[in-house]
Design a protein that fits this description.
Elements: E1 2-8, E2 14-18, H1 23-32, E3 40-45, H2 49-60, E4 64-68, E5 76-81, H3 105-112, E6 114-118, H4 131-139, E7 143-146, E8 150-154, E9 162-164, H5 170-180, E10 186-190, H6 196-207, E11 211-215, E12 219-223, E13 232-234, H7 239-251, E14 255-259, H8 267-275, E15 279-282, E16 286-290, E17 298-300, H9 312-319, E18 325-329, H10 340-345, E19 349-353, E20 372-376, E21 385-387, H11 391-403, E22 408-411, H12 414-419, H13 423-429, E23 433-439
Parallel strand pairs: 2-14, 3-13, 9-10, 17-18, 21-22
Antiparallel strand pairs: 1-22, 1-23, 3-5, 4-5, 6-8, 7-8, 10-12, 11-12, 14-16, 15-16, 18-20, 19-20
The protein binds uridine-diphosphate-2(N-acetylglucosaminyl) butyric acid (EPU).
Residues 24, 99, 123, 126, 128-133, 167, 169-172, 193, 195, 308-310, 332-333, 391-392, 419 line the site of uridine-diphosphate-2(N-acetylglucosaminyl) butyric acid.
Length: 444
């Protein structure tokens, strides 16, 4: 038996959603806590599977972890005490669960001089190599050996280096930040990612005592220090969840107000929706949107401040209910349209192409996976059985199901549990008829 979500459309979704700290920041802060000589406290943490996976890995390394789920304004608080780290190996049972083990290599080298991390996981949305991480760690003095099970590293003392990333990778930027803070001397990082979650991590490290400068043109300069202390931080709101719930209102002809994620983090999402005809009411703590009708548009995903790749699948779900032909061109990941056939099974009219339908040069020339889709809006959707391929694709199914006729049964929801804070509760508060049930495991 396996978990499934059963969705029965219930008309326009209306109401308020409070988002917590972002999935893609909380785990990195937990890793940063490994570098302190005193405990750190991360509050406003979302209740997501990725936090449980990461805290279990930290415990396996010898960290003390306390999770306080108090329902106060600060949300869940996670305290990490790194003083007792005594193990350099992240156990193999964590293989393939998420992308976090590779970020632990630098901190482990600083704390215990060696590291083993199992092969990274995360969603199946392209090949997701770790070459940028490995090159950066090697430049900073780590000796690295990749085995069939994972990555082994050793270093007596890591040192600063001049590193230029071939693409502004979020994870590789985080690896450099986490490693350079305690390395000997100066690290200059060019071609860095500047996503809000990366900047949030850099600020947390600065709070711990790191000497980090942010320069124009994607450059970070980090001067290594001898020690860092623990720090306290309240996470900023999850912009992926925030956008996804705003779309839940729009796709059903309703109106959702999202609290807890600042306008600044949503600027490109708001301007794109604005261009399609959505109307907004924005204040210091919340963003609400609704529309009389929405028109088609063309969007290409990009690094920050572009339209983020994690907003892509909710947007394509929304395109299915807009007037006219819309285009989505994915430039960050090689294979991020695996959810599209299921939307077509629900009645959407989406064609996939492996030619770039946008202005950004493709990094995946010659790939046989589609990088663009053209969506003919307005086709009625029908509920059916669908299986989630990845976390963001899975949310698009819930959105489509909410706008469809009839019941949709969604399996593979463990992907959604890894990254969304209390989604069933949130959707119910908006009026959706959604419940979690147990169903026989579908045959692959
Ligand atoms: N890349 C390489 N080599 C590397 C690292 C990355 O070629 O060593 C390539 C990737 O294959 C990809 C591109 O660089 O084509 C960007 O990848 P990036 O490293 O930026 O992604 P990530 O750090 O693995 C994080 C988020 C993703 C989010 C991306 C982009 C986490 C845990 N994951 O991934 O989130 O899409 O940044 O913003 O922070 C999600 O939440 O659904 C998700 C996939």
């Amino acid at each position: 038996m396996t978990d499934a979500w059963v969705v029965n459309p219930a008309g326009p979704l209306r109401g308020d959603v409070h988002v917590r700290g972002s999935k893609n920041a909380v785990t990195k802060h937990l890793v940063a806590a490994m570098l302190g000589r005193t405990p750190s406290v991360i509050s406003n943490s979302p209740e997501v599977g990725d936090v449980s996976i990461t805290t279990s890995m930290l415990e396996a390394l010898g960290c003390g972890v306390e999770i306080d789920t108090g329902d106060g304004a600060e949300g869940t608080s996670v305290t990490v005490d790194p003083t007792s780290i005594d193990n350099s190996r992240v156990p193999l049972r964590f293989s393939g669960l998420n992308r976090i083990p590779i970020l632990m290599v630098g901190p482990l080298l600083h704390r215990v001089g060696e590291a083993f991390v199992p092969l990274v996981g995360g969603d199946d949305i392209g090949s997701r190599p770790i070459d940028f991480h490995v090159d950066a760690l090697s430049k900073m003095g780590a000796e690295i050996n990749i085995t069939s099970e994972g990555l082994e590293a050793k270093a007596t003392r890591l040192h600063g280096a001049h590193i230029t990333l071939p693409y502004p990778s979020v994870g590789a930027t985080e690896t450099v930040l986490l490693t350079a803070t305690l390395a000997e001397g100066r690290t200059v990082l060019d071609g860095a990612a500047t996503e809000p979650e990366v900047v949030e991590l850099a600020l947390f490290l600065q709070r711990m005592g790191a000497r980090i400068e942010m320069r124009p043109n994607r450059r970070f300069i980090i001067d290594g220090v001898d020690e860092l202390t623990g720090a306290v931080h309240k996470l900023k709101g999850d912009r992926i969840e925030a956008f996804s719930y705003l779309v839940a209102g729009l796709i059903t002809g309703g109106e959702v107000r999202v609290h807890g994620c600042s306008q600044e983090r949503l600027v490109t999402a708001i301007s794109t929706l604005h261009g399609m005809g959505a109307r907004f009411d924005i204040n210091d703590t919340s963003v609400a949107t609704w529309a009389d009708s929405l028109t088609a548009t063309a969007v290409e995903t990009d690094t920050h401040p572009g339209f983020m790749t994690d907003w892509q699948s909710p947007m394509v779900a929304l395109f299915t209910q807009c007037e006219g032909l819309s285009v989505m061109y994915e430039t960050v990941y090689e294979n991020r349209f695996t959810y599209v056939p299921a939307l077509n099974k629900m009645g959407a009219q989406i064609e996939m192409y492996n030619t770039p339908l946008g202005s950004i040069d493709s990094r995946f020339v010659g790939s046989d996976t589609p990088c663009s889709v053209v969506v003919r809006g307005g086709a009625p959707l029908q509920g059916t059985d669908v299986h989630v391929p990845d976390i963001r694709g899975g949310f698009a199914y819930v959105l489509a199901a909410a706008a469809a006729e009839g019941t949709t049964t969604i399996t593979g929801t463990h992907h959604l549990d890894r990254g969304y804070n209390r989604p069933i509760e949130n959707f119910r508060a908006l009026g959706l008829d959604i419940e979690r049930v147990s169903v026989p495991t579908p045959a692959d």
